[in-house]
Write a structure and sequence with these properties.
With about 500 residues, the chain is mainly alpha-helical. Helices cover about 75% and strands about 0% of the residues. The chain has a domain at about 275-470. The two termini are about 15 Å apart.
């Protein structure tokens, strides 16, 4: 059996789940719950298996040739170090969010439609990660985006519909920039295979194509990643969506459709220069500071978390924009860590809303007395996002700051430190107003959320506590392999095309 035959399952499993849930979910009451649990567990297992299979491969990359056509003539799916890291992130978060949704979504009208759209969103994200074809990347990006537009509006209240409309309009404009960029590259290189495109670009002299396409992709994927100044959609979309979708949007969607796609194209296809890296560093630093300053004044729990998503993505982009092995390591590690603690924080906010019926911090207080599991996991996530040791966020932020100092970018290191201090101040406010103090009279009748929601929150909290072990020698290869893929730059073309011929 070909070692790469399992790769299409990352798209097939969620697509089959979406089809079967929409077909049978209305007639068999338990089917949608069972299907989403099984599909999420399978995807998580195959994500771990992908890492194992990749380590045992001779070339360090696995290629699945769709229809048996050898690239660049046919469509291919590529598994390398960066791909496996992203698959683990997406499917780990998806697994816990799916379990959490089993109970949380009972307060909405139609769980069948929710899980159908949820599966399509996961299918789109996995497709973006594994595809080796630039047009297919766009197709999967649109699948995930359209599913997310519908999920933001799932509550069908005026606030949700307005946020979804704004998100859809701005998302369509961003997708247009991406599509035009792909069209220009195709016109210049006569290929859509990403590795072959990188090979052609390295052989041709590009006078105008690369800078023009870079600007288009920076605007398109910058929007998907919610980098300042392309962030205007996020503070409305994230709070309006149901809590599990807020966790998915902030935890994995903006990273997959935005950060991953951007760095894959910039590093492995277009080839990065010092000028492009400096733009990424600047956008990262501005996002980091602007996001946290805007978060400080928020009293809506979910809106506060949404602004912190902008800030934390700034850390990721700053680290990767440094372009050094240490910087990229810090950026990718923070991408993983942020996926975990921000998903957990949105699930915490959903638990509070589920039990207390409010997102306003001023109306909360003393919830630790009646919701101890939510309070403890929220404290862990708050310490993680603030960069307090020994939680996972501390290690990745420290690596990014050290990488800035190593490169002589002291001002950026200072921005990262200030951002962390302001983040801590913001989450001290959350802990003070939501969970500490005396329990308000109107909240005395509430109780902790159901066990399946607690299980998801505790599972993510454990990853926050133990996340630092990824830096230990026996596990660090997961991050190092991903860093190596970006550092090899356009050599990605030779690695993939050589492996495809074997």
């Amino acid at each position: 059996m070909d070692q790469s035959n399992f790769i299409p399952l990352f798209v097939i499993i969620p697509l089959a789940a979406a089809f079967l849930i929409s077909l049978l979910g209305k007639f068999i009451k338990w089917f949608s719950d069972a299907a989403i649990c099984v599909s999420s567990a399978l995807l998580l297992w195959f994500s771990v298996y992908a890492e194992i299979a990749l380590k045992s491969s001779a070339q360090g990359v696995l290629i699945y040739k769709v229809g048996g056509w050898v690239p660049p003539f046919g469509i291919c799916m590529v598994l390398d170090g960066l791909t496996t890291l992203m698959l683990i992130i997406v499917n780990l978060v998806s697994f816990f969010v799916a379990l959490y949704s089993l109970k949380y979504m009972e307060q909405y009208t139609d769980k069948t439609k929710f899980f159908t759209l949820f599966s399509l969103m996961v299918c789109g994200m996995n497709g973006v990660i594994i595809t080796g074809d630039l047009f297919n990347l766009y197709v999967f990006l649109e699948i995930a985006s359209i599913a997310s537009y519908a999920l933001v509006a799932f509550g069908t209240e005026a606030e949700e519909l307005e946020a979804s409309f704004k998100y859809a309009i701005m998302g369509s404009i961003a997708a247009s920039f991406i599509f035009i960029g792909i069209a220009f590259l195709y016109g210049f290189t006569s290929t859509l295979n990403m590795a072959d495109m990188a090979r052609v670009l390295s052989l041709k002299s590009q006078t105008w194509v690369i800078p023009m396409v870079t600007v288009l992709f920076l605007m398109g994927f910058g929007f998907k990643a919610a980098l300042v100044p392309f962030h205007a959609w996020l503070p409305d979309a994230h709070p309006s969506a149901p809590a599990p979708i807020s966790a998915m949007l902030s935890g994995v969607l903006i990273k997959t459709l935005g950060v991953y796609a951007l760095i894959r194209i910039f590093f492995n296809i277009l080839g990065v220069t010092a000028a492009y890296l400096s733009i990424l560093m600047l956008l990262g630093a501005v996002s980091m500071i602007v996001g946290v300053i805007l978060a400080l004044s928020q009293w809506d729990f979910k809106r506060l978390l949404a602004y912190h998503s902008i800030s934390q993505i700034g850390y990721v982009v700053l680290g990767i924009g440094l372009g050094t092995p240490l910087g990229i390591l810090g950026g990718l590690f923070h991408l993983f860590n942020h996926s975990i603690f921000k998903s957990l924080l949105f699930l915490n906010s959903g638990a509070v809303d589920y039990a207390a019926g409010t997102r306003d911090l001023k109306e909360m207080g003393g919830l630790a007395k009646v919701m101890p599991w939510t309070a403890k996991t929220s404290l862990i996530a708050s310490m993680s996002i603030s960069g307090v040791p020994p939680f996972n966020g501390f290690f990745s932020k420290l690596i990014i700051i050290l990488a800035c100092i190593q490169k002589g970018a002291i001002a950026y290191a200072l921005c990262a430190v200030i951002g962390s201090i302001l983040t801590l101040a913001s989450f001290m406010k959350v802990q003070r107003y939501a969970f500490s103090g005396e329990l308000k009279e109107k909240l005395k009748g509430i109780k902790e959320v159901p066990w399946v929601m607690r299980f998801s929150m505790v599972g993510l909290a454990l990853v926050c506590v133990l996340g630092g072990v990824m830096l230990l020698p026996h596990l660090r290869f997961i991050l190092d392999d991903a860093v190596g893929v970006l550092l090899q730059g356009r050599n990605y073309a030779a690695v993939v095309l050589d492996a495809a011929l074997k």
